[in-house]
Amino acid sequence: LHIGIDVQRQRGFTAEAIGSLIKTAKQVFKGPIAIAGGLKPHNIPYLIELGAEIIVIGSAITKSQDPYKKAKECMDIIMEAVSKKGSSI
């Protein structure tokens, strides 16, 4: 699922709305669910909890003052969320 940040802003999409799309996608699609578009580190655990299996984080990293630090922060959040869910990467 990819909803660009510009569309999210224009239509008022929230992490909760994207979460609803994840739930629907899990019901009709049996493959892994990938999420991209305007993701922020604080939204990652919620999206993983709902079933997102591939997280694509772009501008949160590339527009960061320290991309390495932001990428590591995101990876740490992903690892913790996956661990809490009882899954593995």
In short:
The protein has 89 residues and is mainly α. It contains 5 helices and 2 strands; from the N terminus they run H-H-E-H-E-H-H. Strands 1-2 form a two-stranded parallel ribbon.
The overall average pLDDT, rounded, is: 82
Overall SS class: mainly alpha
The CATH H-level superfamily is Aldolase class I
What does the radius of gyration come to? 13 Å
Could you please say which CATH topology applies here? TIM Barrel
Distance between the termini: 19 Å
Shape: flat
The main sheet orders its strands as 1-2
Structural domain count: 1
Low-confidence stretches: none
Major pleated sheet: 2 strands, parallel
* Helical content band: 55-70%
Structure commentary:
This protein is mainly alpha-helical. The protein has a single domain (5-85), classed as TIM Barrel, CATH 3.20.20.70. Helix content is 57%, strand content 7%. It contains five helices and two strands, in the order ααβαβαα. The chain has helices spanning 5-11, 15-28, 44-50, 59-62, 67-85; strands spanning 34-36, 54-56. Strands 1-2 form a two-stranded parallel sheet. Helix 3 links the parallel strand 1 (34-36) and strand 2. Helix 3 (44-50) packs parallel to helix 5. The protein is flat, with a radius of gyration of 13 Å. The two termini are 19 Å apart. The model has no long low-confidence stretch (mean pLDDT 82).
Give structural attributes.
single chain, 89 residues, mainly alpha, TIM Barrel, two-stranded parallel ribbon, 5 helices
Secondary structure: elements and pairs:
Layout: H1 5-11, H2 15-28, E1 34-36, H3 44-50, E2 54-56, H4 59-62, H5 67-85
Parallel strand pairs: 1-2
